[in-house]
Amino acid sequence: MEQWSVGGYTFGSEKDAEIAREEEKKITYLEARMNYKDPESVLQVYKKILENRLFVTPIGHEYLVKLQNFLVESKGISKEQIPKIPLFSVYSAKGLEEPKKSRKRIEGKKGPNIKRQLKISIALNFLFVCMLIAMFIVALNADNPNILNYKSALENRYAEWEQELKEREAAVKLKERELKINIQERE
To answer: Are residues 7 and 68 in the same domain?
Structure first.
């Protein structure tokens, strides 16, 4: 966890800490080239940073606040010219609160319907189980091989072929004997 700490903040992942380290490098680069004697150029750099979403971690936001405070205190730039710092994260659980309220309203209005819906749900589940059992029975008794009965179907097919071959072989041997007997009688 210590390796995920950057600039007094501990981040939740190595990737976030790496982004914060990159932002520190960008801040160092900008500070080396920033002309604080010309507030108008600082304002242009500030706007460009916001436009390009250059900073997304608290490290970068601290720097943006520093620039914003400098611009507010400097003469010649009005507060209306200084854009607010946009945050692209949500910090409240407001989205979680609304469903709780709506659930209470639904339960209050549809109390008797819930029992009816439960009965319907149970009946449908029973119907689905019956259909599933019927499907297995049909699959097991089907003539075509499927995943449930392929072994026995293949064994039966090979047994039939073997029986047919034995019958044909016996018929061929019978004909051969008859032919030998006919040949011997003629001689």
So the answer is: yes
Asked if residue 118 belongs to a domain, the reply is yes
Give CA–CA dist 159/183, Å, rounded. 36
Integer angstrom CA distances of residue 129 from 10, 80, 101, 123, 165? 53, 68, 36, 10, 45
176 falls within a domain: no
Residue 127 lies in a domain: yes
Beta bridge partners of 5: 10
Rounded Cα–Cα distance for residues 125 and 109 (Å) = 26
The predicted model scores a pTM of: 0.47
Q: Are residues 21 and 77 in the same domain?
A: yes
Domain residues for the domain of 120 are 106-141
Nearest to 41 by CA among 30, 52, 57, 28: 30
Residue 76 and residue 8 in one domain:
yes
The angle formed by the CA atoms of residues 117, 123 and 126, to the nearest 5 degrees, is 140
Tens of pLDDT, residue by residue, the chain (187 residues)? 567 777 787 888 888 888 888 888 988 888 888 888 888 888 888 888 888 888 888 888 888 888 888 888 887 777 888 888 887 776 676 555 555 555 555 555 556 789 899 999 999 999 999 999 999 888 777 777 777 777 887 888 899 999 999 999 999 999 999 999 888 888 7
- Total domains in the fold of the chain: 2
